Amino acid sequence: MNFYYFVAQRLGQGQKSFSSIVSRIAIVSIALGLATVLVAFGILLGFQHNVQQKLFSFSGHLRVIKRSLSNAYEAPPLSIHTDLYQRRAQMASVQDLYAFAQKAGILKTDTEVWGVILKGLGKDYPVERFKDNILIGKFPISQKKGYSSEILISKKVADRLQRQVGDSLLMFFVQDPPRFRKLRISGIYQTGMEEFDENIILGDINLIRRLNEWPDSLVGGYEIWAKDFTALEEKVIPEVLDFMNYDMGLESITDRHIDIFDWLNLLNKNVAIFLGLILVVASFNIVSILLIMIMERVRMIGLLKALGASNRQVRRIFIYKGLLLVLRGMGWGNAVGLGFCALQYYFRLVPLNPENYYMSAVPIEWDWGIIMVVNLLTLGLIALVLLLPTLIISQILPVKAIRFD
User: DSSP letters of 287-348?
Assistant: First the structure.
């Protein structure tokens, strides 16, 4: 066994000294600090993931519509006989590309009216993307012939109109001449995001085609899911642009909802600042305990030097001791932090108000890469800080140290 490690293990064992008490405090502070950071990252990543998935489920990562000077909800139609739509399988960075159409209207009951946007989707829409938002019922099924009268509405609209799954609604569409359809509620969804819950209902794209008197070859636009959202600007958009026609416009989800993504990025900065503060406190604690331990063992240091130990060798003993304290604190910190994350992930112990937080419980996202980086950063920074208090050992003279009381 390494001699210095052997001595470091036994420093303070069986002794009730001030340094032993402070050592426990240092271990607890490191454990609580690391646990707090791990929980904060788990919640932050979970929150970002959930909010992003809710956004993506409504409009994908990219949207392609026909260029127009109008900002209306109903864009001029696009044909499905384009290179972008027909050759979508050839784009390596694209996972899904599907057609959609939108039409404004008013839902009416005997006592209430509510203005909404009907978003029509076809059989090429990946329904599994939206399933997590559905509270009850099912997603409307697009018909091969004719159109489906089923719609999916939000819980907020259902409560306002006092309707449930299976009930019918009249929807009056804004066009000339005005038209209306009797629609049946197939399901109810909830995202907690007012922009969608108050305004969007989902239905069959063929219904919008029939209302607009479009042939089956026309749609309102395309929406695209990338295989890697983080590569949207560098890889996905340039590839999609290569397949687009001159009259098409491309818009990313980050541009359409720039306020939400700026907010999520601001949360990243807050957690980084929080991590820095935790590391400063942990470093201060470990420096303090090592200084106390060195002052308590001045005579031992003098004796070791008198026996021929160099300053570097004595410093190694206290560095090992500091690392042992740090590792114990990190072990407890990982156990507490990851344990809490696991309990919240599986049992949803801490609820949230979905109207304020977009979700019904505190979310947890597992990212083992970030967990490893946080642990290595904590260990690396505190290990460097350990060198500072041990520099005082070189100032201790053996003769004076042995006489020290």
Answer: HHHHHHHHHHTHHHHHHHHHTT--HHHHHHHHHHHHHHHHHHHHHHHHHHHHHHHHHHHHH-
> Is 82 exposed, middle or buried (CB count within 10 Å of its CB: 0-12, 13-18, 19+)?
middle
| Cross-strand pairs, 62 | 224, 252
SS3 139: coil
Helix axes 311-347, 298-306, angle to 10 degrees: 130
Computed on alpha carbons and rounded to an integer, the radius of gyration of the chain in Å comes to 31
Kindly report, residue by residue over 134-178, the tens digit of the pLDDT: 999 999 988 778 899 999 999 999 999 999 999 999 999 988 888
Rounded to an integer, what distance in angstroms lies between the CA atom of residue 19 and that of residue 11?
10
Neighbours of 112 (CB within 10 A): 12
Task: For residue 183, give the 3-state DSSP assignment.
Answer: strand
**pTM given for the model:** 0.82
Give SS3 for 353.
Answer: coil
CA distances from 160 to 155, 157, 258, 288 (A): 8, 5, 29, 61
Say what the pLDDT of residue 199 is.
Answer: 93
Beta-strand (E) ranges in 220-293? 221-226, 248-252
Q: What is the residue-wise DSSP string for 263-276?
A: HHHHHHHHHHHHHH
Q: Where are the domains of the chain?
A: 3-54+260-403, 68-246
Q: Which residues of 330-345 are buried (b: 16+ CB within 10 A; e: fewer)?
A: bebbbebbbebbeebb
> What is the rounded distance in angstroms from the CA atom of residue 35 to the CA atom of residue 110?
55
Three-state SS annotation for 92-138: CCEEEEEEEEEEEEEEECCCCEEEEEEEEECCCCCHHHCHHHEEEEC
pLDDT, tens digit (0-9, with 9 covering 90-100), for 83-109: 999 999 999 999 999 999 999 999 998
